[in-house]
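This protein record is not my work; I was only asked to verify it. Take the sequence as given and treat only the C-alpha cells as open to question. I have pasted the whole thing underneath without changing anything:
***
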Amino acid sequence: MKKIILVLAVTVIAFTNSIAQSKADSTRGYWVIESNVKTPRLNTVKFYTDDNVLVYQETVNSKIKFKDKKVQKALNKILAVMLNQRSYTADQELISIYLAKQ
C-alpha cells in the first residue's frame, strides 16, 4: 500500500513539473509602476517581458490610479503593443496620451 501511494505521489509531482515548464503564450509580460514618497506625482511605468527584459519605460508627471480597471486595461493594451514590437522603445509618452483620453 505504501509503495502504491509513493508511486502515485511521484507520478503526480512529475506530471505537475512538466506542465509548469511549458509556456503556452510567450508574448505575456508585466508592468510595474514605481513612485517615491517624496514625489508622489512623479511615476515611472516600466513594461517587461516574462524573461524580465525591459521593453518600454515612461515617466508620467501625474498620479496613476493603478487600482482603477480602466487604467489597468490601458496599461495591458500598451503592454501588448510593446511586446509585439520586440525591441526597446524610448520614452514616447504613450501612457500619458492614452490615460488623458479616459
